[in-house]
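Q: Convert this sequence to structure tokens.
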Amino acid sequence: MAAAMARGWAGGAGGPKAMLFCDVDAARATALAEEVGGEARSRLAELASDCDVVVLAVKPPALDAVAQEMGGKAPALLSVLAVTPTSAIAEAYPGVPLMRLMPNQPVEVRQGVLCYVPPVQMPATLRDDLLELLAPLGTLVELDESQIDAAMAIMSSSPAYIALVAEALARGGEREGLDRQLAGELVAGALGGTAELLRRRDPATIRNAVAPPGGATEAGLAHLEGVVEDALVNAVDASLERFR
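A:
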């Protein structure tokens, strides 16, 4: 996720003046730094002394070890740790200004959704600066922390579900003789346009417009309704169960 954010920032105006990277896999940090015009650091402690804000993007079980290596210090933190409440991060980094953030993969192309919890121990000016920094990556949504896991289950996980649907649709086109790349491009174009329609109309209106009675789309929907709906609801439930 940190890599997606970095690529999004590097892809246009409004990002940070400089980006530093540190990873347990030093080669991965170096490769990403070279890709986006940043710099790699060999030690986590160097990040705290060389930057204005640390994007904390590690596996939740690594939180305490990472905080210990950083001496529990940072100028400010943006945490993208899943299922890790603000209170746990604040305990690991006492007194450090902190904002909990949950972005999704499309931040890489500056069309993401970034849900965040109201920050703690953070001056209003710093909060505004961080939100301004994040804004080029997509749509910012403030949520109560009690809602963040449910939001993650439908907006952070869903790009994978939609990619699975895209693969299946493209395979259907290939089976009927379309070139694989062309089939993928057609599906991507359709999904992109549908996403924009969803900003303007409710899903039922779009579905009814595309699938008039007796048409080809209605025939296809008959195989999906109920099955796909149940599958996606079950996917959300499964994700939430894993979070808990």
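The first helix runs from residue 2 to 10.
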